[in-house]
Amino acid sequence: MNYAVLIPMIIFLILIFFIGYWSSRKLASSSNFIADYFLGGRELGGFVLAMTMVATYGSASSFLGGPGTAYTMGFGWVLLAMTQVVTGYFVLMILGKKFAIMARRYKAVTMIDFLKARYDSKAVVLLSALSIIIFLFSAMAAQWIGGARLIESLTGLSYNSALFLFAVSVLVYVTIGGFRAVALTDAVQGAVMLVGTLILLIAVIFAGGGIPNIVQDLINENPNLVTPYGAEGNLSAAYVSSFWILVGVGVVGLPQIAVRAMSYKNSRSMHRALIIGTLVTGIIMLNMHLIGVFARPILPGIDVGDKVIPLIALETLPAWLAGIVLAAPMAAIMSTVDSLLLIVSSSIVRDVYLNYIKPEAELKTIKRISFGVTAMLGIGVFLLALDPPDLLIFLNLFAFGGLEAAFIWPVVLGLYWKWGNKYGAIASMITGIGTYIALHFYNQEYGNLLGVHTVTFPVLLSLAAFIAFSLLIGRKAYDYAG
Amino acid sequence: MNGTDWRFKIAHREALIGVGLALFNFVWWFGFAYGMGSASVEEYTYVFGLPAWFFYSCVVGFLVIAVLVIVIVKFFFVEVPFDEEEEEKR
Lengths: 482, 90
Fold this sequence. Notes:
B: two-stranded antiparallel ribbon, elongated
């Protein structure tokens, strides 16, 4: 085992535990448990809000998979990754003040609360809860596997022990501290990611003998690496541009991101979050993916993409510093997982149990059930991740795009278009998920339809469905002041 | 409450600004990347060692967007209360 790498990581994990514990003491004195546990009492300041959005969004894929692909594809993949800068400001500007005002008026704690109040329909609530539970549960499991693999590669522990370590760390503080703990630890984790990627980028540039030198090495190996079209020349402009929907503007529809847009304290913290979020997302994305490309001449021949970042960190940094820097992907995975865990358990407790099973439940029961469900979910994911079934991997493929196609229009048009109604919302969700799955199979078989990512057409079709059904069935203007 | 909430007008304007900014971001990003990047590699120029298309599209593009976000938020976004009680006190 590499103790010089491990010790900084362990210190980092202990720090995270401490924050979880500290938040839990605040939670104990809370008067409104549900809003506090699942939303941090709508008290997040600008910095914490920005960091929690960045950290939730930046998952294993942006820290391990993304740079790994950039290593193979070259600058074209960095170009693609930079489409994510838009999420830094777009989500908060679009959902923005209206979402915050309406969420408070509806007393909404989850995105589904908002949909429930806006559309007043049991079908909308159950349909959304179901898609959140299924898709995000799978997405979460995939992240756990990523987290366990990272620990495995760093420590030399077996996969199962690594998974156990990971599961315990995540569960303890999510179960105890709730949203506030998650948001606060996200802030710390976001800061770790930011500093970690900067250090690593500088180290890699030094190791490669400066940027001009590295770029020349890339050209000597394969000139395509420095073009926008990828190593094989197969990244088309249309394909790369369609990522503007998948990882850019479509992110508005992701429940784990949208819920953060109802958690801020006031307009001032929202404004600060907009600025900080844009800067931090941009810097992290640019750095991580450039590191991936620059690593290529320094460490050629890495065939597993996920290993590029750990290997290059160990190669270019002193061991103790590599430990701190590698806490960044660890932080990214943990913060994504804990937010997903909380969203799924809030869907079960808040959206299904409290709405339809036992609305008059007492505070004590709600508390017990919230802790219980969160813990049960964690254990469930753990057991599944031990030996991931194919179905899980399959569902994870749809998690982001499918949820975006399902939720983007019910949320955005629900906020801004008074003619939107429950028929439109139901049609939009079914169309979104249905066409996403169908198109996925088509694209797998025949190549991407019109050369764009699978998410593109379902998002457009669910828009058409939303508008058509809202206007055709039960047309009635919604009264936002009501 | 009668008529449209005064805060919604502000919220709607700011959401439109968000859409506009994203469109501008896309045009900048796409224009430099594929406008300059589609030349053959031998004709590439370099800025700070990075291919020029990448430098302008991703590095400068990011900086421009960051500055725009700061300017827009500081000068065009209006602070409004979110809670109903606060609003009634107005």
